């Protein structure tokens, strides 16, 4: 059948480029493999030239795929499933890219894109390591290229084709409308489904690219490690590759923390970290990468720990692939709030893990004995001894997290399916001890010298920071108000210990920059990163253990179950205009408004006033309507930053939709000073004001507006004022209704009747009381976490620059 | 044997001990019927929302009380009480993972993360709706 109005060329081109990238990366793998294996220099050079050419073609093809998708999305070609499912006409320009990586196939493309960029840098910089490293890089691209191929091989689908038409999708083939040649003219095909409202957020624009750069870069240290094993040049790459390891740890760490900041800033998860399986899946490779980073530094300085460096750098990348499998296979669907859904690629995703895991570990085990190591053992007063143990602890903590995160995978082979009970505490109870150990090691290890320090030297320098840290952390422990007893005294004690360890890290590393490095900041990257890490721990410990629910519902209606462990009463209902006690504040819900007619977002104005200090502020949490006119919406938080704490709030419930109010405005005509009756009293028309200009309304004499000034007298003799308005704009009457909530009464100025009377509309409804239910949390000292994060990232960057200089200096000496 | 090897062994042994002891504190996945038998014990249930029964939530009265009914694949049903706000999109969920315990006839959930919704995709506004709309044309 000939379909009308379809644009098939971009899709064909795009799919061609996707297949080209697959073929080119395959050629690159072969050519670089041959170049690595070749003995003669000419042979090496010619294979390498071919590898480079193939790689360049691959890069061009990958970018062409991206541009084709962007073209399809930006030209609103909704015959393509990608555009139809992920974008819409209303989508703003900056979210065009975001809708690329919202899709499973788009995020693979983003991954591939970064590998391309990193590969281009490696071709210029990797020197003699180019061929083996680029073999691994190209192989990675080859594997990722299969993910977006979308071809059928022996009846199995391989990859998701981003250029498939809606009518070619599984459901499209069943839908009868696609038997019409002009199906594109029906309204449902005129616009796409749009990007989820939650994702229309600037974080969505920047977080995925950074996170995926982090993910993509983990392959580089892995590739160097494989190259070292492959070429049997076991220790030759560690200096050149150290900046790459640092880069990867830096960017992946940044990506994770950006996700954390996004969750805190813009989503209503109620915090920055929830030990969600998807979060864990990105943290675990980072922990192992940091372990490998430290052993790599040890090896460069002392010749120890080369074998463990191999193990960590191989394992971190395998874990990245395993995480990809976990988050994209749909296996976590019942346990995570943000995993991808099953897209029928599980076998392919599992194979992606195995094609790296099996050969990498096989090579490692086969060559293990040949990897040089120092027989003489590390002295217990040497830096490398404690650094190694620290790395090992990081690794074990990662292992613990990934085992519990993998329960759904373990369940696949278990008869009796298991799940964590208290998901957060499952991790917190062990990570708190990891924090204590890592904190203390990070504090003192730098004061030790490589290969041995000698008696008394350590304490001479270390006593001061130790004393300072003890004093500071004791003060915080005593006056900081940390009384987190939900899990007993033991856990509370551990929190205080961890607080000491974290403060110790900060103080000792700051002191080390002064004394140990004599203020040489260029070499201080490591210490700066440690300070940042210590501050992050401090921020995490204080903000989590002192996190407080302010909206604790003391005025709750039902008190059948007052045990806070059974019924935490975390939400409080605020009735519009009624000042309500909320912990140390008076909270008042003042009303809601959207910025403009087309806006998807409604803002709710809540006024807070401190009961004691009269300190006051306003918060505007919002509700974002779902796209495409579907019911429901999602709440987005707002917060007020004090220097030492955040007041954080989001809307947990709204009244049922306003439109459902079925009561009617009953008309009643009045002259001045006339009265109209309603069920609970009467209404007096006091006066009619032309173009009112007062506290509430601001009309000018140029407008055509009339305000009825009313007094409502209830049966119990209470008096209320109301002033509904009618005004004419564009030859249309507009009404500003006024309400008397205490009487469940709405009043409208309907019109002026022919006999010069005022017609009021009177509505009585029990459903009218506008309210919202809120959750309000206080996060003390959350700023320390963000400041620590920034300092840690800065430290990584400083260290990266420093190690690159060192690596270059070493090379020129040779 | 090197000191470092001894430490490695100790740490690994300790980790395994911790792991094994914590494995004991895991909950099990149960059906509604078997959860009833383990009354008072924390369990995980995967079920559907029973749409024939009303979802009770009146934030004007009490924003911390939600109750609804679930049914599982074996056809059993139970009432669920959740002491937090109603999760957005509760009605839309295809499947729902619940962590809590049976107290008498009621499945009580006392932790905020005790309800996890399985939507077609967390980040998509149900594309199936749109697809159905297309199919009916």
UniProtKB/TrEMBL annotation, chain A:
Domain Cytochrome c-type biogenesis protein CcmF C-terminal: 353-547
Protein origin, superkingdom: Bacteria
A biological process term (GO) from this entry: cytochrome complex assembly
GO MF annotation terms: heme binding; heme transmembrane transporter activity
Position of the signal peptide: none
Coiled coil location: none
Ranges of residues in domain Cytochrome c assembly protein: 104-329
Matching Pfam families: CcmF_C, Cytochrom_C_asm
Transmembrane segments: 12-33, 54-73, 93-123, 135-155, 210-230, 242-263, 283-302, 309-327, 347-364, 385-410, 430-450, 462-482, 488-507, 519-542, 784-802
GO cellular component: membrane
Sorted UniProt keywords: Cytochrome c-type biogenesis, Membrane, Transmembrane, Transmembrane helix
Matching InterPro entries: CcmF_C, Cyt_c_assembly, Cyt_c_biogenesis
Protein family membership: Belongs to the CcmF/CycK/Ccl1/NrfE/CcsA family.
Protein name as annotated: Cytochrome c assembly protein
Automatic annotation (TrEMBL), chain B:
InterPro entries: CcmE (IPR004329), CcmE-like_sf (IPR036127), NA-bd_OB-fold (IPR012340)
Keyword hit for Heme: yes
Gene Ontology CC, one term: plasma membrane
GO MF annotation terms: heme binding
Transmembrane domains' residue ranges: 6-29
Superkingdom, natural source: Bacteria
SUPFAM superfamilies: Heme chaperone CcmE (SSF82093)
Protein name: Cytochrome c maturation protein CcmE
Organism: Puia dinghuensis
């Amino acid at each position: 059948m000939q379909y009308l109005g379809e644009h098939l060329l971009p899709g064909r081109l795009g799919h061609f480029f996707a297949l080209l990238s697959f073929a080119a990366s395959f050629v690159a793998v072969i050519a670089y493999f041959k170049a690595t294996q070749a003995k003669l220099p000419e042979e090496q050079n010619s294979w390498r030239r071919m590898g480079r050419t193939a790689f360049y073609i691959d890069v061009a093809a990958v970018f062409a795929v991206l541009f084709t998708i962007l073209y399809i999305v930006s030209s609103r070609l909704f015959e393509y499933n990608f555009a139809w499912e992920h974008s819409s006409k209303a989508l703003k320009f900056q979210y065009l890219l975001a809708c690329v990586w919202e899709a499973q196939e788009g995020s693979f493309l983003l991954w591939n894109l970064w590998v391309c960029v990193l590969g281009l840098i490696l071709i210029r910089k990797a020197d003699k390591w180019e061929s083996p490293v680029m073999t691994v890089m190209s192989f990675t691209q080859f594997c990722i290229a299969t993910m977006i191929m979308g071809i059928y091989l022996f009846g199995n689908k391989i990859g998701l084709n981003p250029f498939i038409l809606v009518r070619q999708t599984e459901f499209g083939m069943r839908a009868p409308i696609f038997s019409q040649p002009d199906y594109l003219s029906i309204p449902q095909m005129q616009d796409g489904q749009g990007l989820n409202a939650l994702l229309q957020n600037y974080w969505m624009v920047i977080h995925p690219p950074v996170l995926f750069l982090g993910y993509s870069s983990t392959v580089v240290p892995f590739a160097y490690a494989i190259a070292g094993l492959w070429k049997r040049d076991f220790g030759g790459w560690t200096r050149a590759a150290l900046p790459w390891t640092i880069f990867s740890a830096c960017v992946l760490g940044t990506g994770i923390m950006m996700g954390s900041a996004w969750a805190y800033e813009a989503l209503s998860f109620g915090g920055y970290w929830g030990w969600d399986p998807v979060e864990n899946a990105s943290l675990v490779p980072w922990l192992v990468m940091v372990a490998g980073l430290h052993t790599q530094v040890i090896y460069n300085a002392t010749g120890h720990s080369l074998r463990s460096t191999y193990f960590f750098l191989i394992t971190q990348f395998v874990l990245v692939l395993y995480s990809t499998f976990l988050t994209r296979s749909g296996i976590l669907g019942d346990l995570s709030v943000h995993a991808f859904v099953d897209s029928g690629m599980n076998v392919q995703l599992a194979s992606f893990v195995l094609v790296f895991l099996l050969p990498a570990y096989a090579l490692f085990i086969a060559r293990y004995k040949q990897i040089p190591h120092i027989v003489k053992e590390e002295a217990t007063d040497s830096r490398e001894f404690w650094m190694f143990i620290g790395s090992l602890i990081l690794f074990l903590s990662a292992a613990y997290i990934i085992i519990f995160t993998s329960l759904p995978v373990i369940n696949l082979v278990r008869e009796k399916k298991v799940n964590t009970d208290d998901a957060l505490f499952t991790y917190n109870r062990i990570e708190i001890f990891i924090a204590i150990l890592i904190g203390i090691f990070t504090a003192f290890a730098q004061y030790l010298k490589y290969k041995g320090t000698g008696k008394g030297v350590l304490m001479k320098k270390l006593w001061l920071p130790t004393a300072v840290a003890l004093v500071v952390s004791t003060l915080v422990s005593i006056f900081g108000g940390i009384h987190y007893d939900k899990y007993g005294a033991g856990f509370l004690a551990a929190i205080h210990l961890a607080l000491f360890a974290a403060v110790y890290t900060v103080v000792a590393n700051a002191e080390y920059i002064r004394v140990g490095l004599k203020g040489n900041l260029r070499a201080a990257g490591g210490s700066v990163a440690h300070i940042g890490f210590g501050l992050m721990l401090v921020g995490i410990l204080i903000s989590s253990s002192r996190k407080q629910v302010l909206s604790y519902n003391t005025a709750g209606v039902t008190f059948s179950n007052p045990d806070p462990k059974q019924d935490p009463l975390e939400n409080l209902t605020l009735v519009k205009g009624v000042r309500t006690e909320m912990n140390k504040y008076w909270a008042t819900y003042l009303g809601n408004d959207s910025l403009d007619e087309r806006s998807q977002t409604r803002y709710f104005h809540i006024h807070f006033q401190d009961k004691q200090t009269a300190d006051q502020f306003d918060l505007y949490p919002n509700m974002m309507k779902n796209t495409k006119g579907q019911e429901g919406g999602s709440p987005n938080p707002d917060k007020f930053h004090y220097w030492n704490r955040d007041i954080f709030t989001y809307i947990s419930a709204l009244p049922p939709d306003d439109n459902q109010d079925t009561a009617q405005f009953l008309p009643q005509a009045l002259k001045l000073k006339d009265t109209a009756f309603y069920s609970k009293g009467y209404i007096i028309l006091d006066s009619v004001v032309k173009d009112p200009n007062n506290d509430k309304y601001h009309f000018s004499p140029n407008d055509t507006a009339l305000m009825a000034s009313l007094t409502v007298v209830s049966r119990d003799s209470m008096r209320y004022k109301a002033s509904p308005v009618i005004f004419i704009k564009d030859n249309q009457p507009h009404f500003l209704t006024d309400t008397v909530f205490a009487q469940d009464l709405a009043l409208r100025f309907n019109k002026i009747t022919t006999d010069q009377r005022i017609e009021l509309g009177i509505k009585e409804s029990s459903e009218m009381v506008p309210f919202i239910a809120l959750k309000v949390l206080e996060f003390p000292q959350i700023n320390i976490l963000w400041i620590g994060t920034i300092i840690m990232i800065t430290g990584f960057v400083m260290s990266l620059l420093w190690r690159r200089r060192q690596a270059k200096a070493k090379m020129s000496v040779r | 044997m090197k000191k470092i090897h001894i430490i490695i062994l100790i740490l690994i042994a300790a980790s395994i001990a911790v792991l094994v002891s914590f494995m004991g504190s895991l909950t099990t996945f149960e059906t509604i019927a078997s959860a009833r038998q383990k009354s008072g014990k924390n369990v995980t249930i995967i079920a559907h929302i029973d749409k024939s029964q009303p979802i009770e939530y009146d934030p004007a009265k009490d924003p911390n009380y939600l109750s609804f009914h679930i049914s599982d694949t074996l056809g059993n049903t139970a009432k669920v009480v959740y002491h937090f706000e109603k999760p957005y999109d509760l009605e839309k969920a295809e499947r729902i993972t619940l962590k809590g315990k049976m107290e008498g006839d009621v499945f009580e959930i006392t932790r905020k993360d005790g309800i996890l919704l399985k939507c077609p995709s967390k980040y998509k506004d149900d594309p199936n709706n749109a697809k159905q709309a297309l199919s009916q044309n």
